[in-house]
Amino acid sequence: MSNFKFYLPVLGFVVVAIALWRGLFLDTKTLPSMLIDKPMPTFELTSVDGSGVSNSDLPDQIFLLNVWGSYCLPCLIEHPTLMRLSEEGEIPVVGVNYRDRQDLAIDWLADNGNPFAFSILDESGRFGIDLGVYGAPETYLVDADGVIRFRHVSVIDETVWQEQFLPAIAELRAEGT
Amino acid sequence: MSSSAIFPNRNVLLLVAAIIVLLGSLLLPNAAYSQVDTFEFDTEEQQDRFRTLSDELRCPMCQNSSLSGSTGGVAEDLRREIHRMIMEGMSDSEIIQFMFERYGDFILFRPRLTAATVLLWFGPLLFLLIGGLFAFGIWRRARKITDSDTQLDKSQQERLQQLLGDKT
Amino acid sequence: MIPEVGSFSLILALCLSMILATLPIIGAYQNNFLWMSMARPLSAGVFVFLGISIAILAYAFVTDDFSVQFVAEHSNSLLPDRYKLTAVWGGHEGSFLLWTFMLAGWMLAVAIFSKSMPLEFVARVLGVLGFLITGYILFMLATSNPFDRIVPLPPVDGADLNSALQDFGFIIHPPTLYMGYVGFSVVFAFAMAALLSGKMDAAWARWCRPWANVAWAILTLGIALGSWWAYYELGWGGWWAWDPVENPPLITWLFGTALIHSLAATEKRGVFKAWTVLLAILAFAGSLLGTFITRSGLLTSVHAFASDPSRGFFILAILGITVGGALLLFAFRAPLMKSEFGFGLVSREILLLSNNVILVVAAASVFLGTLFPMVYQAITDELISIGPPYFNAIFIPLMALLALLLSIGPFTRWKRTSTSYLVQQLGKVALAALALGVVLPLLVTREISLPATMAVAIGSWIILAMLLDLVNKTANKATRLKGLRALSFSYYGMQMAHMGMAVMLLGVALTSSFSSERSVLLSPGQDVGLGNYVFQFEGTASVNGPNYVGEEATFTVFEEGEEIAILHPQRRIYLATNTPSTEMAIDAGFLRDLFITLGEQKEGDSWSMTIYVKPFVRWIWLGAIFMTFGGILAAVDKRYRRLRRKQTESNRSKDKSNSIGGELQPSS
Fold this sequence. Notes:
By secondary structure, chain A is an alpha/beta fold. Chain A is built from five helices and eight strands. In chain A, a hairpin with a 4-residue loop joins strand 7 (138-142) and strand 8 (147-153).
């Protein structure tokens, strides 16, 4: 069957074509987080309003960690959602003020409202690196033991909250105490 | 014929080589090339390591550039971290591990060798072996044709002998 | 009104190409002279209507017709005229129209320069090309029509052309790249004609070679222009990033290089027939793959156009039908193409075969590295990156191996060569190359560098072997000069291209080993040193362009105390989009480049900036230019023109008398 080798190119091509076709359905832009199921990085920093904060100040229940900046336009777009969540007591929200200036951050919160229990001040972006942040806004779902369970990149609006966060939270509540 | 053909060749070749060496040493700049100096480093080796690491790590928020080829944002912060880690005495593999723990395989332009990437790293070698096999097969068939050429020659030669034999 | 004419012209071109894709090919099977002879005029017609389309698009840009969506997305009233014209290929729709128009240009060239080929063959070739163009125009009309209008309210002004594209490099790189890239469709059509007819003889290879050589030469130039442009545009001295959109042209180039060498063996000795056809199909597949990757959003890259999956599916369909169909036909017909002659273990055929294996392995490896992340993600749902460290690790050893074999080729004879002859000739060259490799870098840098030694040794190996071969080949004539004149363009083309390869290898290796850079913060009056050079920062001044404002710095460059250059890097803001950009200032030289990129203004008058010294970087593109010239020289060898004239006369009478319908024509 020495003629079989002449069929190898077309067979190889079929494999490649199938791979290319499947490839069209992939989302290559969102980076999955490396910290899923890992504990929050340890930190001992100051918050935006000047007081010292560390891991012990984090809520003892499931909470959201939101990475934001006063320069970030999508952060402004997702702000109403965070405000509602915080005001209605649905879930605590802790902020990470990422690569920003303290005075600008304070002004932004004053102008728009402060949904955060507190905001960790991360002017240099060092804490963001420990989280694996690559651009604001990002929102993490952290469980009661301080373990990161889910990350959403980009705006968290009501649809994202309903379709992605609520099911994840329900799952956590089901398995945890 | 062969010796006289070699002599002019050899002389010409030596002459050409000598010219190239002379020209080369004249034209090439006599520089002591210094290396990279982006941050302050204690040794040149540290500078080289910084450059190589920045080249081999991918910017997480850019379209396909390395940390050294990106401006602003996370890329700047990560370069600063690399500098810090080099100065603190961390090894290259420790620095890469640091990056991997936070950003995953995506940030490594040099993919790790794992069970999943074995095909990637050894693929080219595999291709070379397969290519070599195909080439060998083509040559084997070609040699068979050459052999049959010689056989024809033989039968033709016999005919020739016959004809000659007839003549005498 | 006029943009609609452009769209209508596309439809007319489509109608003609659909006829072209069917009738002449059927005519070839039925030996129908009338249908076959329609191929040439139909080709001309397709070219004319596509030409009208692209001219109308250019007109829309030049007249600031922002009611056309493509113009509004890529132009602006303040944009200088030359960039308005080149903005035609500044985005997906227009660049694809350019792509198709280039193919029509090649098709017209085949129609004109094919008088020496039998009509049956020409009909098939033009028919296949017409089939391709049909697919491309359908794609445009269905998913990417450049003439779509914005209704109901067109914008007052356009979004402006991306600032990185407002540059000379953008004027020449895409058209040249496309011209070469698309040129491999011609060789593909030749291969398809051979497969369709079931015949492939030495004549086929002889017709094919000039087209393959010219397409290869232009593609070499196109890729080199892209590299050169990236180098001075991006601002950090990089000239090849192994980007997923850069790689497909390289893959085509690698297959194309294997093809032109394989064609030599097929023409001269009737061997590697199936191999040659396969390479022609693969080189063409590379060009479609590039189109697919760039336009489907499959992979993230700086080059990718805005993604739209429906386009991806359409192009994949074209890929499947053309390449899949071609490979299937190959599986059926290739076994019939048997080699006519044999060859021994030490022979030119073996060297060309090894050349092909290495190039195909290199192409397959680049392909593997480019698509692996996507496959990995599809299977594991995780992201992985494959970049320069991987590609360099694989590609460089392969190219080094190729370079070593390259010199041996011209010294071998067809079928059988004496090994002792090769050793005797090339042994001297090897020793001389090693000696130069050790001595030259030592002389210049006064330190031992293995990469530099290897690079100089391999470069000398190629160049010295070439010189020795020249000496050998002119030995038997009355004078050396007569000997040189007696050598063919084909020979000179080969040597020039090989020399280009050596020059490029040297440039790549030496610039990678010895480039240096330095980032500093300077105030006016301060200076910084790098290598033998001192860069003195004089100060900055405001600068106003047609569609930008910025700051221009002045630097005086000294070498060993003597002033050698004044450089003016700029930092610009483009008004329409408020995007900043940096314009490097380069002092280009044969032996080294010096350049400066401005960063940002810090406190007071001080600026951050980076200085670069890059030795031998120009050799990279100089080598490519040599290769381009070599390819074109080989294509215009007298041999082809002489045979063409003879063939043309005999064909004219043969076609007419042999075919149905032809008998009705009065004999000439």
